[in-house]
Design a protein that fits this description.
It comes from Natronospirillum operosum. Keywords: ATP-binding, Nucleotide-binding, Transport. Belongs to the ABC transporter superfamily. Residues 4-231 form the ABC transporter domain. With 231 residues, this protein is of the alpha/beta class. The protein is built from 6 helices and 10 strands. It has helices spanning 44-52, 91-101, 105-126, 142-154, 172-188, 200-206; strands at residues 2-12, 19-29, 33-37, 59-64, 67-68, 76-79, 160-164, 192-197, 209-213, 220-225. The strands form 2 sheets. A 6-stranded mixed β-sheet has the order 6-7-8-3-9-10, with helices on both faces. A 4-stranded antiparallel β-sheet has the order 2-1-4-5, with helices on one face. The two termini are 28 Å apart. Bound molecules: adenosine-5'-diphosphate (2 copies).
């Protein structure tokens, strides 16, 4: 099954203005891990906004889970370069957040709170954050904050996880630890991943398929299966 599909998608932010992305066609299979790399301004964020329904294509079609995207998608997990953890919430309560917002969890929250909490604790333990459930974001290192932010993105079991430079602010050692953490999460319980990154090594380490974007016509330069290139 296909999780995400772009059909000849172009987008101009201003009517008649320059195209932020131009004639992009691609498809991401269910549980595939893809990475999108390319220089600043090539349209990576725009691609993410199209998938999450925060903007619409000027031309072409975007499908997620077989349906054309219309409006913001709640059942996608997302994490960014900044962890965006809410400073007044503990680690556990930050990770719980999507369960308080996304259905059907939202309506089950009152009766199931204990079970949901147990799941959060379990997920936090899997990423090495056991014992940090009651800490606040400022008490966590940058790497720990990103671990928590990825837990938050996955807690409602989304079919699709979108990561925009999630490790961009971390030092090289912490980065590699988090690559392995993400890879383990994905191997244990697969989901579709779209990873946007500037780091080609990160892309080839993690992804099944790496898309290279450039600016302008024919911008989808390469789609390369990199199984063999994996370290
Ligand atoms: P990055 O390269 O890390 O994606 P950018 O500097 O390209 O960061 O973009 C950061 C944010 O600013 C994005 O959300 C993008 O949509 C917005 N942005 C980029 N260029 C413009 C522009 N010319 N006008 C308005 N918003 C822009
Ligand atoms: P990337 O994430 O790869 O840095 P973006 O998707 O942010 O690229 O930007 C692609 C192009 O679209 C850039 O030329 C950028 O300046 C432009 N752009 C991005 N967001 C906006 C916006 N909100 N309004 C106008 N132009 C934008």
């Amino acid at each position: 099954m296909e999780q995400v599909r772009f059909e000849q998608v172009s987008l101009a932010y201003d009517e008649g203005g320059p195209l932020a992305i131009q004639d992009i066609s691609l498809s991401v299979a269910e549980n595939e891990f893809i990475a999108v790399v390319g220089p600043s301004g090539c349209g990576k964020s725009t691609l993410m906004k199209l998938v999450s329904g925060l903007t619409e294509p000027t031309e072409g079609y975007v499908y997620v889970g077989g349906r054309q995207v219309a409006g913001p998608q709640k059942c996608i997990g997302m994490a960014f370069q900044a962890s965006n953890l809410l400073p007044w919430r503990t680690t556990l309560d930050n990770v719980m957040l999507p369960l308080e917002i996304v259905q059907p969890y939202r309506s089950q929250m009152r009766r199931q709170r204990k079970a949901f909490e147990a799941r959060c604790r379990d997920l936090l333990a899997r990423v090495g954050l056991a014992g940090n459930e009651d800490k606040f974001p400022w008490e966590l290192s940058g790497g720990m904050q990103q671990r928590a932010s990825i837990c938050r993105a996955l807690i409602h079991k989304p079919k699709l996880l979108m990561l925009d430079e999630p490790f961009g602010a971390l030092d090289a050692f912490t980065k590699e630890e988090l690559w392995i953490m993400l890879q383990e999460l994905w191997q244990e319980e697969p989901f579709t991943v779209i990873l946007v990154t500037h780091d080609l090594r990160e892309a080839t380490f993690l992804a099944d398929t790496v898309y290279v974007l450039s600016k302008g016509p024919g911008q989808l330069v390469a789609r390369k299966a990199i199984e063999q290139a994996r370290p």
